[in-house]
Amino acid sequence: MGFFGTYAFEHGQWKTLSEGELPPLDEPSLWIDIHDSDITSVVYAPAGPGTGVAYLGLTPRTYFENPNASDPTDVLREAAGLAAWWALNNSGDVTAKQAEILGYLAEDEDPDDFSVEDEQDVEDVDVFVEIKTARFLEALDLPLPVELSR
Length: 150
What we know:
- This is Immunity protein Imm1.
- By secondary structure, this protein is an alpha+beta fold.
- Helices cover 25% and strands 20% of the residues.
- It has a five-stranded antiparallel sheet.
- A hairpin with a 2-residue loop joins strand 1 (5-10) and strand 2 (13-17).
- Helix 2 crosses helix 3.
């Protein structure tokens, strides 16, 4: 069984929520929901040029092999949205931050295209989305929820 966790970041701190719970949050806010060590849903507000929803690891469309499981992803748009979100509380090169964030975001993929040629070459960050989520949050200059800082 993989890792599950739901967290909301508002007013400069994390709150642990029930699985899948998304209460109304004061902006700027970030909500993450980690599902079975495979998908992290990221909901951020304000959305800026993004839609306000991005994924790490796999997208629901890919994971559940169902095109109706989530809207199609546009990682460039979400990277721009998340970089704009980051810029609300940070100074720095937004374009560089957007490029950094882009490396974490999941795109829709055909599940039949997955192949692991040599399992020894696979890094933990590519297997356990909670590790990728912790690194993503660090890229956003955010503290980590306690459960992800272990």
